[in-house]
Amino acid sequence: MTRRTPQEKKRLSHLKDRRNAYGENDKSSRENIPRSRRARHHELRRAEHLAPRKLTASGGTLDDSEVRFRRPGTGSWRKWADLRLGELVVRRLERRAERGGADAPRNAARNAARIERIRRTTRPRRG
Question: Most CB within 10 Å of its CB: which of 18, 27, 36, 94?
């Protein structure tokens, strides 16, 4: 096993580590993801259960060979991956630069250099 330099460790951390950037407490995802999936699946099951009733109520006949139930769409809730640590750091630095502050002019060049360095080192390598 080869030893990694601190710079290589940080580069790999920026590439591989993930952070929750959704805007809520990251621990609440343990409850909210299953809750959202449960609600969506409940909606699908209910729509399938009510489809034959809607068909017969509208005067149609219920023939299994002809009836094709249209399931509701997949809904608006989707899981998405957390952001890479490098992307999150760049976002925070850019936001800090936008907001300005008393020392913004002095730190602008330094922040721009940090952003460029992170982007350059976390760019996928080819070869």
Answer: 36
